[in-house]
Each structure stands twice: as C-alpha cells, then as structure tokens.
Amino acid sequence: MLDFKFNELKLKSGETLAPVTIAYQTFGTLNKEKSNAILICHALSGDSNVVEWWGKMVGEGKPIDTKKYFVICSNVIGGCYGSTGPATVQPFPSITISDMVNAQKKLIDHLGISRLLSVIGGSMGGMQGLQWSVAYPQMVKSVIPIATTTKLSAQGIAFNEVGRHAIMLNPKDGLAVARMIGHITYLSDEAMHKKFGRRQKEGGVEFEVESYLKHQGSSFTKRFDANSYVSITKAIDRFDLAENYNGLAEAFAGSKEIKFMVVSFTSDWLFPAYQSWEIVKALKTNSINVSYRNIGSTAGHDAFLLDDPQLKTIIGGFLSNV
Amino acid sequence: MFKPDYDQIVKWVEPGSRVLDVGCGEGLLLDRLIKEKNVHGVGVDNDAKSLDLCITKGLSVIQSNVDQGEGLKDFPDKTFDYAILNDTLQALHRPLEVLLSMLRLSKKVIVGFPNFAHLTPRFYLFFQGRMPMSKAMPHMWYDTPNIHFMTVKDFQLLCKDQGITVLKQRYFGEHFESVHPFLANLLAAEAVFLIKK
C-alpha cells in the first residue's frame, strides 16, 4: 500500500481537513500516454485492495484486465484503512461523497493522469463515479455506476440510522448490529432462502441465518472502526448529486463527452433499479451516450460483488470499446 | 442473411443523424447504420443476451420493456432524427402506443413489418385452414411472438386514422424483389414505411 500526503483538503462543510493522507494501491502498468488508468471506487466497508474484494472482476486476464489497464483504488477519507479518518484526526469533521472524490482527484493529479479511461464503482463506489462525472467531467472518459443512486432512498437512510443508533449506544456491539442489518439489506428474500432456508445449526440451537449474521457482525468489529462507519454512512445519506442544480438532467449537462454504462440488479431493494433508470433518463435528456442493463439476479444488492457472468461480460466488453 | 429491409432502412437514414432502434436485437442494423451512415445510434431491447452482445460490440443499448410502457416515455420530444421499429410491431402488446411514442420522440419513424395479406399466407389460410407458417413465420400459433398481425392496408389505414404522414413506402416480395405499391397488399411479403407526425 502506498501513501499520498498533501497539506489540506477544503471540505464541503467549509471546514478544512489537514494534513491529509490517501492510502492507495495500483495494479498493472501505466502506459506512456497515461491513457489506460481506471479508478475503482470501493463501497462502504471496502478498501484499496480491489483484487481481493473484486477478484473475479479485476486482475490479469479478468474483465478489468491488469495486463491492459492501470487500476487505481484508494481508501476513502473517513475510512479506517490508512486514509485520513476519525482514527487519525479528532474530532473528525463531517465529510461528503464529493469530499472523498476531491481527495481522489488530488491523487490522480499527483499520479500525473489527466484523463481516466474509466471510473467504476458499485453502491457508494458508484456514487463516487457519478460525482466524478459531474465534478470533473473533463477528467473521465467513461463511468460505470453499478447498483447505485444519485440520492439514497428514505428506506436506505432508515437502515443506516438504525446502525448508527446502535453504535451510539455501544460502539463495539453497535457496530456488529449495524453490520448485521447491513447484511440483511444486501441480500434478498430469495437469496436468503437459497443460502440458509430454515436450516438449523447442529443441535438446533439456532438457525443458520442467525449464526451467519452473528459471525458477520463480530468479524466486522475486528476490521472496522465504529466512527468510520458513522462518518461514511452519514456521507452516503447526505449525497445528492443534483442538490446544486435544478434537477438531475441539469447536473449532467457538462458530462456530454463521457460514455456511461449504468447497471442495476433486479433483486436489489436497497438501491432499486428505478434509481438507476433515473440516471439513464437524465443522461438521455442530455443526449449523453449511455448503455443500461438491469441484470436479472436473485442475489440482491450484493450481486455486484459476486461472480456474475453477465456483469463480467458487459464490463469487459464496454471497457474494450471506450 | 440478405435483408432487403435493412438495405432500405440504411438508404433512407441521413448520414450523421441520431437514431433509436427499438427492438434492436443483436444490433446488426444499428452496427450497419453506424458503419455506413456514421449515425449516433442507440438500441433498445429487453433481451439480456442480445444486449450483452451489443455492449461487447461497442454499441449503446438501453434495457427496457417498451411494451410495458417503460422507457420510451422518458425520452424528450424529438430527441432522435429516426426511430426504427423493424420486424417488431407485430410482436408488441400495445403496438399503437409504442408507435405513437416513437413518433413523439423522433422526427421520423421507420417501420418494417411482414404483410399478413401476402399471397402465400392468404393461400395457406384458405387452402389449409390453418394459421400460416413460413420461413419468415416459423412458429406455431401458440408460441409465436407475433401476436398482432396486420396487412399493408391495415397499416395504411392506421396512418390515415392517426394523422400520420407516410413519406415513403417500399415493398418486397418473397424473393426480395421490389413490389409495386398498387399490388403491395397482395404481393408484398415485407413492407417498410417512413412516416412522421
């Protein structure tokens, strides 16, 4: 993991974050023209080690082929994997998705890349991709927002608030509860039925779904910081791509040179397909080049992280034509 | 496969125009229009495999079930120069609704469809007393995607009733030969219309 340090970042709130460290990783080789760089933005609990959490998608010979592309993935500010966050700066100011992207922009400048071939991300990563397309349209050739939205639904905010509330009562156990709720929202009725059904652990002490959630909750507390969880979920909740514009179509008015591919999943109820369609609609209103796929899947929101052959086909296919 | 309707559509479309291909399938026509006429093309379809193939070819495609009223209504008026509905109208549940929204969102619309009043299906129905089947219509009545068969005359009447202007029309026989408009309802296996509203 590499560190990029800079003096300060002006935040959207008006506050200044100083000094700032961005912990990041790169995979593959940047070509001479610096035209093969792809930025992958991780989701809420992800990190810069994209070949690990998205191993089916990123790597040598994979759809995002690191033999062809120079892949960059940085840990978001506010997180707990090496970039400046609540564990390093106290009190940690309130941050937004645009602050995360502004920090990434400094990293991309630092790497000497003037235009990214693509910005790709799912969930909160997709929010960052969309933010890139509006804030720095001249710096991105294409964007692939996956299972994401330009603004989180009330339902999404509600789940995040329950998680934060639990953390406020007790940081460690609360974080576990928040993660358990998170995992419920990342799946679907059908996915849970397939994965667990009503099967019980040996001895009939508890259902498999119970022990799964408990395990997810407790293992998360060993790898994630409760304050980061609060800080990042707040940023997700507050994100509204169109807030400074008169509607979403106006927000994309400057993004005409970008090629988009918007992807949703039929069983994703946390970031439902209609939210992706809103993006497509706004892009089309601007006659912006966009493809849209609503992939049939029973896996829920988690589908984008799984080994989905259709997602792999279209990401590989789309990138080779950018 | 030689497609006379494709050739005709490619001929009609002005170079560099904005084209929407509704029911684009695997994007064969769209691909030709981009290569031969340098159009800005978008395809719409609801078949996952076809869409993935289009994306792999570098085509812009949008997944939408136009038949359920999705998709087309969200395109602003006259976003396109040409909207194409080739060999699709007869497979839609709400053909008129789709046709009218295409006429709204595009300056001109190109519609291609098989003529059910063509001699061959006429004779088939008359002599066999069964729903016509052919190379172009290979399905049994119960599993055919074609649920709204119409004739050249039907389509002309529809245009009249709806105040749709027919700019051009071309007809092709079973062996892709050109058919005179006067005898089209009898001799044309395929019809292609350029219309506007």
Automatic annotation (TrEMBL), chain A:
Record has Membrane as a keyword: no
Subcellular location(s) of the protein: Cytoplasm
Location of the active site: S123, D268, H301
Top-rank EC class of the record's enzyme: transferase
Coiled coil: none
Family: Belongs to the AB hydrolase superfamily. MetX family.
Subunit description: Homodimer.
Record-given protein name: Homoserine O-acetyltransferase
Native source species: candidate division WOR-1 bacterium RIFOXYC2_FULL_46_14
Gene name in the database record: metXA
TrEMBL record, chain B:
Gene source species: candidate division WOR-1 bacterium RIFOXYC2_FULL_46_14
SUPFAM superfamilies (alphabetical): S-adenosyl-L-methionine-dependent methyltransferases
Matching InterPro entries: Methionine_synth_MetW, SAM-dependent_MTases_sf
Domain of life: Bacteria
Stated name of the protein: Methionine biosynthesis protein MetW
Transmembrane segments: none
A UniProt-annotated Pfam family: MetW
